[in-house]
Design goal:
The chain is mainly alpha-helical. The protein folds into two domains: 1-30; 33-73. The chain contains two helices and no strands. It has helices at residues 2-28, 34-72. The two termini are 37 Å apart.
Length: 73
C-alpha cells in the first residue's frame, strides 16, 4: 500500500507542476494584453466556481434523495 500512495502522490505532484507550467506558458504567450487576459481569467474563474457550486448542489440533492429512498426500504 505504501508504494501505491507514493505513486499517487508523485503523479499528482507531476500533474500539478505540469498544469502550472502550461498555464504560465500560456499566459506569457497569450495573444491578448495583460488587462484583457486578467479579465478573461477572472470571468473564467467565476464561471468555474459557479459550475462547481451547481455540481455540488446537485450531488448533495441526489445524495439526500437516495438516502431517503434507502430509508424507505
Amino acid at each position: 500500500m505504501h508504494y501505491d500512495r507514493q505513486s499517487l502522490s508523485i503523479g499528482t505532484a507531476a500533474l500539478l507542476i505540469g498544469f502550472c507550467f502550461g498555464l504560465g506558458t500560456g499566459i506569457l504567450l497569450a495573444p491578448h494584453s495583460g488587462a484583457r487576459t486578467r479579465r478573461r481569467l477572472k470571468h473564467f474563474t467565476e464561471d468555474m466556481i459557479e459550475d462547481t457550486k451547481e455540481v455540488i448542489d446537485e450531488a448533495t440533492y441526489t445524495g439526500k434523495h437516495l438516502k431517503g429512498l434507502m430509508a424507505v426500504r
